[in-house]
Design goal:
By secondary structure, the chain is of the alpha/beta class. It has twelve helices and ten strands. It folds into two domains: 197 residues, Rossmann fold (3-Layer(aba) Sandwich); 89 residues, 3-Layer(aba) Sandwich (Rossmann fold).
Length: 303
Amino acid sequence: MSLTHTSIAAAHARIAGDIRRTPILWLEDGLCLKLEQLQRGGSFKARGAFNRLRQAGDLSAGVVAASGGNHGVAVALAARALGVQATIFVPEVSSPAKQARIAALGARLVVGGAGYADALAASQRHVAETGALAVHAYDQPEILAGQGTVALEWQEQAPDLTHVLVAVGGGGLIGGMAAWYASSTTQVVAVEPETSCALHAALAAGQPVDVPVSGLAADSLGARQVGGLMFPIAQTHIAQSVLVSDAAISEAQRWLWAECAVLAEPGGAAALAALRSGAFVPPPGARVGVLVCGSNTAPGSVA
């Protein structure tokens, strides 16, 4: 499956009844926030999950996913909507708020292993044993096409953006978005935490490589290695890759809450952190879009 305007537009039509068309918020100096934290399930992940399940055939053996949390919530949501059983494997670093949402959606929740890679290995064993449909967090064509629908909407809502800043974990979101924006003049900027930077390392090495994972946003942006499907897209269509500190992410969370009444989890605020910390400096006259991509955190965690 080729990731094109046609395939992303087809995904958008397929899942239109399952997702929300999230709003944008214009702020001073031409800054535009895409409020994807208002998506069903609290993150963009619902788009890819519904697109994967809507194209699947026999789901009688159920579906399975490994997740730091948000993808698990999305798969559990999509599975419930389609009337099938979901089993979600999450690592120990997954936040209690995300685990609670997964369980509340009726999925079987399995917690174990130190990081996402451990949860992924456990999910793969489950697929081999049961025949359940695997719904990968970021490295399946249907997932990338679904996540790319964020860019389709955003371009319709704000066609004159010069740059869009997108947080990166395994790369499914930015891969889909960069594929959509590839034929435009809008530049896509990747943002990662300093301590979880799989794409930044891959671009430096010329291929996906393993990286250590830690830090405030590890539950959502803590992939050990970026996906193989997105990497060629990243090499060609991502204009810049920048890193942000945990302190900058925390500051961006607080700013979103204080100035915009927007609740964002650490990974959801990482893209804004690049702008506010100076990790990304827009050129004069730029009209910058920032994706606020997730809200699955306890309200009291942002002070």
